[in-house]
Amino acid sequence: MTRSILCFDIGGTSIRAALAIDGQMPGAVTRFDTPARDHAAFLDRLASLAAALPQRPDAIAISLAGVVHPKTGKLIVANIPAIHGTDLKTDLHRQIGIPVHIANDADCFALAEAVFGAGKGHDIVFGVIFGTGVGGGLVSGRRLINTAGGFAGEWGHGPVVPLMAGDTPIPHFACGCGLSGCLDTVAGAPGLERLHTHLHGKNDTARAILSDWQAGETGPARTVEVFLQLVAGPLAMAVNLTGATIVPTGGGLARNHALVAAIDEAVRPLTLSKPAHPLIVPAASGEEPGLAGAAAIGFQAFLPKER
Ligand SMILES: [Zn+2]
């Protein structure tokens, strides 16, 4: 039986949409501006895409840069007032009349990697994001360890940054989550820039820091060395805790495969399993992991639940 899932990847400025058919990766992508403030306009925009398809899709699946409150079902997505605090799943279902699935973007990334990407053939896949922040999602047996929310696998928060990297003091920077000393403050792209400023008093972009590191410049090399020291311990712990046998990485910093390889080299010796093959690897689920992961969630919802 042919199934089709209309997939959305919803961000603060734009929404990407694509149709996925019969368990495959989503096809051609349509982009449009996010109706940022008006909830009714937001619902109408998504509904109009569903209505424009030649055939009604079987479900809608959404990847979102936010989380779903596990009890109330309401979204926590501060940068999109049109849907922040709303029950988008219920509202969309009411308007369009087909099942609606919503998941956190890091979770969608992890599932996309498990089903279509670098995690294929692995039972436990821990997908991590080194982007504007540090995120993650956990998949076991091609299923997300998260039926609601989006908190599982979020290894970027918690006061874990060591106060010294070698003989260099590292401050506990305040984090957006309300704590301080979270990995998120030093290990995403803004975190790398913050570390570089702390160590050298320079305001360079993450891209420049990494390209200067690869060119062999000593200042950026020190920044990356400290970055690796701070990241490696928590990531090795996360690998031990989850039992993941592969850790696909996404987000802006992970586009630099030399950095991913350096993270892999730093982490593997610190894990209990000390695998001989690369453990921290670049993502391989294509340019639209949010859409791919949403598609996988949509298709899985039609499968019989395992006991
Ligand atoms: Zn935090």
UniProtKB/TrEMBL annotation:
The keyword Kinase applies. The keyword Transmembrane helix does not apply. This is N-acetylglucosamine kinase. GO terms for molecular function: N-acetylglucosamine kinase activity. It is an enzyme of class 2 (transferase). CDD domains: ASKHA_NBD_ROK_NAGK. Pfam families: ROK. InterPro entries: ATPase_NBD (IPR043129), ROK (IPR000600). It comes from Martelella mangrovi. Transmembrane segments: none annotated. It catalyses: N-acetyl-D-glucosamine + ATP = N-acetyl-D-glucosamine 6-phosphate + ADP + H(+). Keywords: ATP-binding, Carbohydrate metabolism, Kinase, Metal-binding, Nucleotide-binding, Transferase, Zinc. Its EC number is 2.7.1.59.
